Amino acid sequence: MSKALELPYFTIRADDLANWLDDQPNAWWTVDGDPVLTSCVDFPCPTDELSAELRRIGKSLRMFDPRTGATAHGDAVVIELLNEMADTDNNSGARTFLLSWEGEDIQWLLVEDIDAAKESA
Amino acid sequence: MAGRPLTDLNQKVRDLLTHTVPLPHGVDAPIRNFEERTNACFNLVKYIDDHISTQTVYQASYDRHTSLLHRMVLVSIVEAFERFIKETAVVCVDAIAPVTIDNRFDQFSPTGGSLAAQFNAGSVGKAMCESDTWLSNSAINERFRQVLKPRFGDPWEYLFPNEKQNPAQERDRASTLSILWQVRHSITHNTGVLTDSDARRLTLMVKTKVTSGDLLNPNLFDLRYVKRFLVETAHHTNTRIGQRLAVLLTERHQDDPALFDPQQLANSIAGSFQQPLTIDGRAGIV
Fold first, then answer.
1. What is the pTM of this model?
2. Would you list the domain boundaries of chain A?
């Protein structure tokens, strides 16, 4: 039985996600659960390492929207609203996104690593 | 009194072998497998750190459990590196065994039983490498020096040289790696307690007094730095071994061009090492 969360989702191109990440050059990120990215990148990593790998893969992703009342069903994401879609209900308030690659079943987390960013500053 | 119900524990232990999940499909390359394993280890700690509310825990219990979890993860990261070395050795042996006949594999001593157990694996490398442990610099050095030596020639360079061995520029990395092998030993065999002999060895390695009788208590940043060191070491080692293997196979092909198709083998090892490698002028495609 699939353990995938059935949530409304937007579609986002890997390039667009990479561009959004590049606008935050001092942030660090961790990916939890994606066999593709976790076999290529040493996490946690600074933004540029992750965005380069996303561009290399170049596929579209599903970005799930955890907000109450969300209704998206594959609509193109509005990049400016990404921060509003982030789940920050965790100990450090880190922005967390639930994603999957288009056409794949595996859902995985993109998590901001605030401690790693502070350590490297 | 109800007490504990009678349970067939013999069967319960056997049942765990049926509780499995399929491995996700990815690129089957030692360096990729290693990255995935170490990220999974680290994410375990990160997820718990992010999601257990520290406002609602019993702090002493939480600290004790976190300490144990960190030791377990530290060992898992080091053992993932051992697995990377072993998988890399399998790739080398599988590439070299069909095209050489000399004494390079005499370092391996698989028993008849282990050979029989691996017979269906279809890989001479697995049969020779899987059953051994690769948990010290010296064991790794001696095997790779033999496997990657020129045909009927002297052993190859030391992968992780000590302070009297070469290449000299690899000594610092090797010295740090030897500390991690010892830390793994202390956690695995002594539950993280630094025994007198552990402390003595570590004192000699780090050239600073390490107190015996204490329990290792690694924090999240210790894990980050160990992971990063081992990832960088794995990539560096992957490059060194891949390039040496390509040179060795080039020599074999120039000795005897009928031995194998260089393009096919170049593609195979380029995929295994995830780097462009060339055999006798034929560039492998990653």
1. 0.92
2. 9-120
